[in-house]
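dumping this here so i dont lose it
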C-alpha cells in the first residue's frame, strides 16, 4: 500500500481501529532522504507508512495519527533524536521507538534506553536486523494495546455490573415501598369497612331514620372521614419518602393520638375478645414523629400483640416520660432481647417511652433475630405480609428514636419505642 502523503496524514483525525484487523502504522524519522526512502520501500507492504524529515514534523504526525512504532535517527539537524524520542513518548507513552545510531557514545545510548526506546540499530543497517527489530516493536505495541483494550473492557463490564446491581436494588426498594403502602392503608380500610357494616346494620331495612340513628351515623361518618384522611396521608408519606423532613411534621400531642388509637382498635377485627387497655401520659407532650406515623407504629404493634395467639390475652399500651437519657450500656442483645437503631438514636431527655405489652406466648429465640426483616412472617402468606415490624423500625429510625423488644416464652412480649420529645405548639 502507498504511503500516506504528509498533508493527508496530518489532516486525518486520530481514529483507532480494532487492533486485530488494523495494519500497524510505522513512522520513519530521518533528515536524510536516502535512508528514509529505503525504509519506506522495505516496509510499505507491511505497514501504513508516515514519514518525517525532522523532529517537529514527527511530533505533529504522532499527535494526529495513531502511530504504533517509530524508527528514529538519533542524529538529526535541529531537534535531536533523543529529544524527539522524549516528546514522542509524551504524546503517546506506548509508542515503541527503534533508534538508528551511527557512532554514539554509550551515554547517549543509555539516555535513549532510559527514555524507553525499545531497540537500537547501527547505521547503515542490514535488512533482516531492521525487519526483525520493527516486527518485534510492532508485536510489543499490539500486546500493549490488547492489554489496554482488555482492561478497558473489564472496567466497562465492572461498571455495567455495578449499574445493574444499583438498578436491582432500586427496583427492590420501590417494590418494598409499594408493599408498605398496601400494608399501611389496609388498617384504615379495615376500620372504614367495619364502620360501614355497623351503619348498614343500624339502618337495616328501615325507610325512616330516627334522630338517634342520624347521630349514630354522623358520628361514624366522622371516623370514616378521619380514616380516609389517614389513607391519603399514608400515600403522601410514601410518595415523598425520599425527601421527607420530619421537622415540618405536625406536632400533635401523644395523648390525642392515643385517643385516636383507642377508637381504631375498638372496631378492629383482630381485637376479638382480648383485653385492651391504654395508659396515657399525666401531661400531654409532642414527639418528633408525624402523627399518622405514631398511630401506624402503635397500630402495627397492637395488631401483632392481638394476633400472637387466638387464646384470650391482654394487650396494654403505656406511655411514660423519661427525665433521663437511656443507659444504653444496660441493654444487652440476647435470645430474649434486642435494641435497634442505636446508631441514629437521639438519646436526650425528656424521652417518650411508649410500650405495647402482651401476655401472649412470646417469641422464640430462633425467630427473634428475624422478626424485623422485611417479609418475615409466621402467619402464612395469606395472613401476614411480614412488613409490619419492618415499617415500625423504619419510622422509628427516621424519627431518630430507638426500638426495643423483650420477650419470654409463655409470659409475653413487650415492644418499646423511645422517641425524642418536642414541646407542644400552644395554638
Ligand atoms: N407480640 C408478638 N408476639 C409474638 N410474636 C410476634 C409479636 N409481634 C411480632 N411477632 C412475630 O414477628 C413476625 C413479624 O411481624 P410483622 O408485623 O413484621 O409481620 P406479620 O405480623 O407477620 O405480617 P403483617 O404485619 O403483614 O400482618 C410475626 O409473624 C410474628 O411471628
Ligand atoms: Mg404485623
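and the seq i came up w/
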Amino acid at each position: 500500500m502507498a504511503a500516506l502523503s504528509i498533508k493527508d496524514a496530518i489532516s486525518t483525525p486520530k481514529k483507532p481501529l480494532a487492533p486485530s484487523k488494523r495494519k500497524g502504522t510505522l513512522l520513519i524519522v530521518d533528515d536524510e532522504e536516502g535512508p528514509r526512502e529505503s525504509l519506506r520501500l522495505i516496509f510499505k507492504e507491511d505497514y501504513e507508512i508516515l514519514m518525517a524529515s525532522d523532529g517537529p514534523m514527527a511530533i505533529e504526525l504522532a499527535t494526529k495519527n495513531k502511530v504504533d512504532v517509530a524508527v528514529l535517527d538519533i542524529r538529526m539537524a535541529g531537534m535531536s533524536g533523543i529529544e524527539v524520542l522524549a516528546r514522542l513518548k509524551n504524546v503517546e507513552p506506548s509508542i515503541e521507538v527503534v533508534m538508528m545510531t551511527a557512532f554514539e557514545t554509550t551515554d547517549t545510548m543509555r539516555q535513549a534506553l532510559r527514555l524507553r526506546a525499545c531497540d537500537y540499530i547501527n547505521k547503515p543497517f542490514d535488512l533482516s536486523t531492521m525487519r526483525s527489530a520493527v516486527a518485534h516493536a510492532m508485536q510489543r505495541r499490539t500486546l500493549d494495546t490488547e492489554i489496554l483494550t482488555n482492561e478497558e473492557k473489564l472496567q466497562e463490564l465492572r461498571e455495567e455490573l455495578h449499574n445493574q446491581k444499583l438498578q436491582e436494588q432500586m427496583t427492590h426498594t420501590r417494590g418494598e415501598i409499594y408493599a408498605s403502602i398496601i400494608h399501611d392503608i389496609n388498617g384504615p380500610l379495615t376500620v372504614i369497612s367495619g364502620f360501614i357494616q355497623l351503619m348498614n346494620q343500624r339502618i337495616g331495612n328501615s325507610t325512616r331514620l330516627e334522630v338517634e340513628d342520624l347521630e349514630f351515623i354522623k358520628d361514624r361518618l366522622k371516623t370514616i372521614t378521619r380514616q380516609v384522611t389517614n389513607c391519603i396521608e399514608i400515600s403522601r408519606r410514601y410518595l415523598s419518602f425520599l425527601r421527607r423532613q420530619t421537622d415540618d411534621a405536625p406536632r400533635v400531642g401523644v395523648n390525642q393520638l392515643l385517643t385516636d388509637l383507642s377508637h381504631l382498635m375498638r372496631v378492629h377485627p383482630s381485637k376479638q375478645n382480648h383485653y385492651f387497655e391504654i395508659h396515657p401520659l399525666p401531661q400531654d407532650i409532642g414527639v418528633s414523629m408525624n402523627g399518622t406515623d405514631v398511630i401506624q407504629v402503635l397500630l402495627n404493634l397492637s395488631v401483632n400483640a392481638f394476633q400472637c395467639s387466638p387464646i384470650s390475652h391482654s394487650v396494654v399500651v403505656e406511655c411514660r416520660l423519661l427525665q433521663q437519657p437511656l443507659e444504653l450500656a444496660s441493654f444487652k442483645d440476647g435470645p430474649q432481647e434486642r435494641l435497634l437503631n442505636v446508631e441514629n438514636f437521639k438519646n436526650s431527655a425528656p424521652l417518650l417511652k411508649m410500650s405495647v405489652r402482651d401476655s401472649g406466648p412470646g417469641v422464640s429465640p430462633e425467630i427473634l433475630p428475624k422478626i424485623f426483616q422485611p417479609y418475615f412472617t409466621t402467619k402464612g402468606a395469606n395472613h401476614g405480609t411480614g412488613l409490619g415490624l419492618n415499617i415500625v423500625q423504619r419510622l422509628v429510625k427516621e424519627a431518630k428514636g430507638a426500638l426495643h423488644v423483650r420477650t419470654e416464652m409463655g409470659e409475653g412480649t413487650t415492644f418499646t419505642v423511645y422517641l425524642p420529645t418536642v414541646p407542644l405548639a400552644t395554638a
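The first helix runs from residue 6 to 11.
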